[in-house]
Amino acid sequence: LTRLYAPLTALAGARVEVMSAFVSFERVFEVLDLKPLIARKPDAREVPEGQVSVEFEKVSFGYPSAEKVSLASLEEVATLDGRGGTPVLHEVSFRAEPGQMIALVGSSGAGKSTIAQLLPRLYDADAGSVRLNGIDVRDLSADSIRDTLGMVTQDGHLFHESVRANLLLARPDASEDDIWDALRRSRLDGLIASLPEGLDTVVGERGYRLSGGERQRLTIARLLLARQRVVILDEATAHLDSTSEAAVQEALAEALEGRTAVVIAHRLSTVRAADQILVVEAGRIVERGTHSELLAAGGRYEELYRTQFERPSADEAQPVA
Ligand code: ATP
């Protein structure tokens, strides 16, 4: 996950302050805003209203070399793409229909986060095309991309701010009712209402200590408030006890309802629910299908399933610190 943000650090020593996790595609978009070529493209298009399809067609990509990035001025950064880097993705193709959930699985370093980074144009593909509703992301305005795509990670820490402030990040104009509605749907309303300071309770490392499951549900409350129609979700890796797991999973299913989702999946319940699972290995999609299709095929997915997704029983599961 840290790698998802690494390019920010590389790009933006100058003026973008990187908050390590949680939100932070807002930060990513600050970088996008530094890309004058995108922002000023005269004929830039908008993603039309309604649900959105996500499509990769023969996308190949390699990260730019470190020297190239550190030498680049901001203007040069605006035109940086992966040219010249070691290839990390090779002819990746898939299509998420509007409202579908795609799960990316694969071992560490396979290329899952890289696929996620190409959607908001943190980098551009060297070859092939990344499209939202059939429109190449290079032809979309930065504003439209920002309004359409949301990025959520569940492992991140919270900002040392009130519950309210953490939630308003997702939708600054949310009303008190909207906030409570999101908390209710993420099954956190009871807890927050019981705290002496309610919504003004400061959370985060030095504040009120939420449990792992509660933190995950607070990120889901943010997702419920956010308006973006496409969600890129990097799931939490922490195992929860089975009661918390069920609560998190129900809330997540509700939050993703009606949106198109690309999920870097770490949970069995997610891969089971996915419309399509893509098995990524060394930058290629080596298998695709539903959970039951892939298990029946008895290939790489089945192996991954045994090592990554089959969980110890609830009694053995480690509580989240
Ligand atoms: P994980 O599950 O560990 O997060 P992943 O499947 O998301 O892994 P990626 O992070 O996409 O894998 O990494 C794919 C390859 O790209 C790896 O070889 C990695 O070392 C390389 N890589 C990732 N980020 C960068 C970067 N910013 N610069 C150079 N190489 C990178």
Automatic annotation (TrEMBL):
GO terms for molecular function: ABC-type oligopeptide transporter activity; ATP binding; ATP hydrolysis activity. Residues 72-307 form the ABC transporter domain. It comes from the Bacteria. The keyword Cell membrane applies. Keywords: ATP-binding, Cell membrane, Membrane, Nucleotide-binding, Transmembrane, Transmembrane helix, Transport. Belongs to the ABC transporter superfamily. Lipid exporter (TC 3.A.1.106) family. This is ABC transporter ATP-binding protein. It comes from Streptomyces microflavus (Streptomyces lipmanii). The chain holds residues 309 to 629 of 629 of the full protein.
